[in-house]
Amino acid sequence: MSRNIEVGVFIPVGKNGWIHSVNTPYTPGSFQHVLDVVQRSEALGFDFVLSPAIWRGRKGPSRHWMDSLESLTTTAALLQATSRIEIFGTVHMTVFPPATIAKMIATLDQIGAGRVGLNLVTGSSYLDLAHLGLWNDELNHDERYDMADEWVHLVKRLWTEEIVDHKGRFFATEAATMGPKPSRMPKLVNAGASPRGIKFAADNCDIAFISASDGPKFIATARQCKEAARAMGKPNLKTFGLVTVIPGETDAEAQARLDHFNAGVDRECLADIAAGYEQNRSAKALSEASLSLTGGEKQSCVMPGELVGSYETLARRLSVTALEGELDGLMLVVPDYIEDLAAIANRTLPLMERYGVSSLRSR
Ligand SMILES: Cc1cc2nc3c(=O)[nH]c(=O)nc-3n(C[C@H](O)[C@H](O)[C@H](O)COP(=O)(O)O)c2cc1C
């Protein structure tokens, strides 16, 4: 078995990134830090970065995400400051009208000479969207994806057709013209973990993101996603795995780092995230992925499935994740986006070739 995968970085546009702890390494959620991370990612050879859309900070002593950057404006500045790496911005289709985003992405296509991509999300946290005054109780989880289907259909029409008259269930445009057209169709991605979310990705996107790891449950989910896409007649849908990696010189050192982060776990923050989902009227329909950020029974400060180990151990475990999960790409979360990213690029990714997984510099 061998695979050639893309590797990217889930960039920390929110304070403390994805470690819910008072012991998180320096991650201020500032533009200067994110710019540094992205320019280093480009120099290290990473294929892409993805900036999430964060609107609301969390309660608790770690002040998690209390400082965060807006995704698309950050994407604009990052595209201007780089020359090769692909940059994905994120939009909540429940927040922005489609014609607005079609125009903004066409503009970003010019700023980044065809390197912009778009991560499309619906949003399941009541508190995150109510914070903007934009929670819509009329739509349940699956209906939000119905709306999203129409949203993306309209955006694609605006990117490709001269005059767009659209009258649908959710949106209408009258004699809409939009120029410039993007130089190529921007890559579209979605991270819907539910069956309805995966259907949305298969119908509308180039890539589906899923939470990934080397455990049997994660491998099965990754393969099911690929299988579901094939069954829907979309064999070209790529699947990329989101993985949290915690490296160290030795397995013990890496584990000690995680133990230190967990010693400072911010339970108030985890409870606040859970409260955001609980107040969603169709909370019962929430996918496991939505709930993975709430810490689980273990009340862990990192998302489930974290890979902890030496650079060698991580090479093996990431290879199993990619090979057995039939993944086309990996997107990394790390504790320290300066030191850890460089070490993973220089010490772990090259070792993965031993296991038949090539990426970055091996191409
Ligand atoms: C890689 C990745 C990126 C995501 N980015 C965002 C984001 O920026 N903003 C957000 O509100 N949700 C984000 N999510 C959550 C998903 O959009 C989705 O709501 C979640 O995975 C649950 O899936 P479902 O909507 O099919 O139930 C992300 C999830 C993943 C795995």
Automatic annotation (TrEMBL):
Domain of life according to the entry: Bacteria
GO annotation terms (biological process): alkanesulfonate catabolic process
Keywords of this entry: Flavoprotein, FMN, Monooxygenase, Oxidoreductase
Pfam family, one: Bac_luciferase
Keyword Chaperone: no
GO molecular function terms listed in the Swiss-Prot or TrEMBL record: alkanesulfonate monooxygenase activity
Name listed for the protein in its UniProt record: Luciferase family protein
Native organism: Rhizorhabdus wittichii (strain DSM 6014 / CCUG 31198 / JCM 15750 / NBRC 105917 / EY 4224 / RW1) (Sphingomonas wittichii)
